[in-house]
Design a protein that fits this description.
- The structure holds two protein chains of two kinds.
- Chain A has five helices and eight strands.
- By secondary structure, chain A is an alpha+beta fold.
- Chain A has a single domain, classed as Alpha-Beta Plaits, CATH 3.30.70.20.
- In chain A, β2 and β3 form a beta hairpin.
- Chain A starts with a strand and ends in a 5-residue tail after the last helix.
- Chain B folds into three domains: 198 residues, Aldehyde ferredoxin oxidoreductase, N-terminal domain (Aldehyde Ferredoxin Oxidoreductase,  A, domain 1, 4-Layer Sandwich); 180 residues, Aldehyde Ferredoxin Oxidoreductase Protein, subunit A, domain 2; 153 residues, Aldehyde Ferredoxin Oxidoreductase Protein, subunit A, domain 3, CATH 1.10.599.
- Chain B has a six-stranded mixed sheet, sandwiched between helices. Chain B has a six-stranded mixed sheet with strand order 8-7-12-9-10-11, sandwiched between helices. In chain B, strands 13-14-15 form a three-stranded antiparallel sheet, covered by helices on one side.
- Chain B starts with 5 loop residues before the first strand and ends with a helix.
- The chains are: A alpha+beta, B alpha+beta.
- Chains A and B meet through α1 of A and α7, β13 and β14 of B.
Chain lengths: 155, 619
């Protein structure tokens, strides 16, 4: 079964546990700057929104890469960077419509979410279930259920 | 390990930024944050120093866990000599500033001397600069924060800023980081202002590592589970924030009201955490928008709130800042009590507005509300009149008057600057020092010492002046953590306070939030530290470090002239009995508890730290 990260911004408190889990998994250091998932605070609205790569099927980044350094992981559906091949040209960062592929100046390569090989650390670290890892076919299940409850016939 | 072992020393008089190694020997004895910076203070700033002179020094310091993935591990403290109390000041803040400091490669930033002109400090990893702040001097925290973000073109910049109150010498000015998190008490913002420093703007990209990652993840994951499963940290605080206490404390007759004349407030439910969830008539929205977590916090007691757009307080605020019609850090229990119950005001939106002003201009809402309450009593008694207040009818329950006073203190003008000197100086000036509810010149928090006896002993002995965060025996006396004790009983409270005070000093020195201690003991903290840094860290060692820190602070205060002589409560606590509830007829039993406390601390009967105790603790 293919799984997807599901984000519910209404549950996010902006604590950045996800960013630390991600940076540690990817770079071996607690460093929000190196996280592939980012939390965006919108102060005046009082909202925190987690955002990361959604693993497009026809991934722009993958198609744009001139050295085929972005490959599909057939088990997880993730588009993964092959560091040995990446030349740091950044074309993928331009191609991605969502800004979720970014250059890491320390390594000279790009970084993006790779679903941690199928067990995403961000989802495990999130204390409020704002980030969960669910069946890719039913990412709307909980939301749908919520609205279904509204449509429940009165007893 | 999760220390960077580097300190940034900024001499404002000379205009220099100099890196130096962190004193790792002292970390063995005092851990970090509160303990370690107090050690630096005692070595570098003579106890007799004038707090607002260039000779005072300000330490912004992280703990060993700050910047890691341990729950709540984003804390930093500001340690200096307090202009409010003359004692050691140590104010702890969350938000995202402490972790950013660590990420930039610094365990501590030291500000010494005084800049000849207004400046701010810019730190980007190793690069530190003292830059002109003329354009933001005289501006609010929010305006300065916006300006700094625009100037540095960095949305991820983290800023700690003072408001106009701190520039003007209001003695309980706070340092605000991340728009609404505060190093709030004892006037640490006033010290920053006295040095002509408006802000510290940080950006770090280095990250933080730990000594033993496997052990660290095991320890922190287990500890997070304990927080999630605890009734206070897993349910009460996430649901209602610290405001979960408003109705609880009021119902047990321990909620000080009308400048501590009474112990319960009829309007409490209207300003409670529950009331913050009720949709209002004007726009159908509740006061509470959302819970906000500080860095790495899995509790999220923080509140993000809005003010009713129809409320009188915001009708004329369009011109000043659009945020008055949007979200900011909302009420927590202490602020709601001081600005509300203590002043007799049950208008939730008026209190939220006053809280927003405290965020905007950097004020401690406890000292602010408490000082206004004392002034209200003096006004009702005819001790001060509209001639003193600049025309404000300062009666209890008058929300407009409270708001006017708050706005004036925020910008340090007229009657506001007078209130900004704090309740002790204000009451003294008008000939009635007995009406000031303070210890060591710092205003009481929200628990009545007549109804919760252990807290009275805590206020009297607190090293930073009256404070609930130095030994929160409410946990035991009200909530039953770790064991239930009778709040009306004085017996055993000396030992209880000492245990809480020592443990709290250790928590405050580790880089984590004291609210974890509702669920964690030092047994839960020790393995996290042990995995993060070098050395053997046991609960016993942490307990001893806590006791050492407490005694170090006490020794400094003794030398500063605010030791045992200041271990007393206002006469009202000792002679005016509680008017209602279970404590009806009771006064504080401080006279019984204090000698026991001195004895159990290993101090002399006069309350001085003895040579034996100093030797035992290696002081």
């Amino acid at each position: 079964m293919q799984m997807s990260l599901v984000i519910d911004a209404n549950k996010c408190t902006g604590c950045l546990q996800c960013e630390m889990a991600c940076s540690y998994e990817g770079e071996g250091v607690f460093n929000p700057t190196k996280s592939r998932i980012k939390i965006f605070p919108f102060h005046e609205e009082g909202i925190f929104v987690p955002y990361t790569c959604t693993q497009c099927d026809e991934a722009w980044c993958m198609h744009a890469c001139p050295v085929e350094a972005i490959v599909l992981n057939k088990t997880t559906g993730a588009k993964e960077i092959v560091n040995d091949l990446c030349v740091g040209c950044k074309v993928c960062t331009i191609a991605c419509p969502f800004g979720t592929v970014n250059y890491n100046a320390d390594s000279g390569k790009v970084i993006k979410c790779d679903l941690c090989g199928g067990d995403p650390e961000c989802a495990k670290a999130c204390p409020t279930d704002a980030i969960t890892f669910q069946d890719a076919n039913w990412t709307g299940y909980d939301k749908m259920k919520g609205y279904a409850a509204n449509a429940m016939p009165a007893k | 390990m999760s220390w960077t072992k580097k300190v940034l020393r900024i001499n404002l008089t000379e205009g220099t930024c100099t890196p130096e190694p962190l004193n790792m020997e002292w970390t063995e004895q005092f851990l970090g944050q509160r303990g370690l910076a107090t050690k630096y203070l005692t070595e570098e700033v003579p106890p007799t120093t004038d707090p607002l002179s260039p000779e005072n020094t300000m330490y912004m310091i992280t703990g060993p866990l700050t910047g890691t993935m341990a729950s709540t591990a984003g804390r930093y403290s500001v340690v200096t000599k307090s202009p409010l109390t003359g004692a050691v000041a140590c104010s702890n803040s969350g938000g995202f500033f402490g972790n950013e400091m660590k990420c930039a490669g610094w365990d501590m930033i030291i500000l010494e001397g005084k800049s000849p002109t207004p400046v701010y400090i810019s730190i980007n990893d190793d690069k530190a600069e003292i830059l002109p702040a003329d354009e933001i001097w005289g501006k609010s925290v929010w305006e300065a924060d916006e300006w700094l973000h625009a100037k540095h073109q960095d949305p991820q910049l983290r800023c700690a800023v003072i408001g106009v109150s701190g520039e003007k010498g209001v003695r309980y000015a706070a340092i605000i980081n991340d728009l609404h998190r505060a190093a709030g008490r004892s006037g640490v913002g006033t010290v920053m202002g006295s040095k002509n420093v408006k802000a510290i703007a940080l950006r770090g990209s280095k990250g933080v590592t730990v000594n033993d990652p496997k052990a660290f993840f095991e320890a922190t994951t287990a500890a997070k589970k304990i927080l999630a499963e605890n009734a206070v940290t897993g349910e009460g605080l996430p649901a209602l924030g610290t405001q979960v206490l408003m109705n609880v404390i009021n119902e047990m007759g321990a909620q000080p009201t009308h400048n501590y004349k009474e112990v319960s407030f009829a309007g409490a439910s209207k300003i409670s955490g529950e009331a913050m969830l009720e949709p209002r008539e004007s726009d159908g929205k509740p006061n509470l928008t959302r819970n906000a977590g500080c860095f790495a916090c899995t509790i999220s007691c923080g509140r993000i709130s809005t003010i009713d757009p129809q409320h009188f307080s915001v009708q004329n605020r369009d011109d000043l800042h659009k945020s008055y019609h949007a979200n900011s850090g909302g009420l927590e229990y202490e602020a709601a009590w001081a600005l509300g119950s203590d002043t007799g005001i049950d208008d939730l939106d008026a209190l939220t507005y006053a809280q927003f002003v405290c965020n905007e201009q950097g004020l401690d809402p406890i000292s602010l509300g408490s000082t206004i309450a004392a002034a209200m009593e003096m006004f009702e008694e005819g001790i001060i009149t509209t001639e003193d207040t600049g025309g404000i009818e300062l009666n209890f329950g008058n929300a407009e008057a409270m708001i006017k006073c708050t706005e004036l203190v925020a910008i340090g003008e007229g009657f506001g600057l007078e209130l900004g000197q704090g309740s002790a100086r204000f009451c003294e000036k008008h000939g009635h020092p007995e009406l000031s509810m303070t210890v060591r010149g710092q205003e009481f928090p929200a628990y009545d010492p007549r109804s919760i006896q252990g807290m009275g002993l805590g206020y009297a002995t607190s090293n930073r002046g009256a404070c609930h965060l130095r030994g929160y025996t409410v946990a035991s006396e009200v909530l039953g953590i770790p064991i239930k004790t009778d709040p009306l009983e004085t017996e055993g409270k000396a030992g209880l306070q000492i245990a809480f005070q020592n443990a709290t000093a250790a928590f405050d020195s580790a880089g984590i939030c004291i609210f974890t201690s509702f669920a964690w003991s030092l047994e839960d903290v020790a393995p996290q530290l042990d995995a993060a840094i070098e050395g053997d860290w046991t609960p016993e060692r942490l307990g001893e470090i806590g006791e050492r820190i407490w005694n170090l602070e006490r020794l400094y205060n003794e030398a500063a002239g605010v030791g045992a002589s200041a271990d007393k409560l206002p006469p009202r606590m000792m002679s005016l009995p509680a008017n209602t509830g279970p404590a009806e007829g009771k006064v504080s039993g401080l006279d019984t508890m204090l000698p026991e406390y001195y004895a159990e601390r290993g101090w002399s009967p006069e309350g001085d730290v003895t040579a034996e105790t100093k030797a035992r603790l290696g002081l």
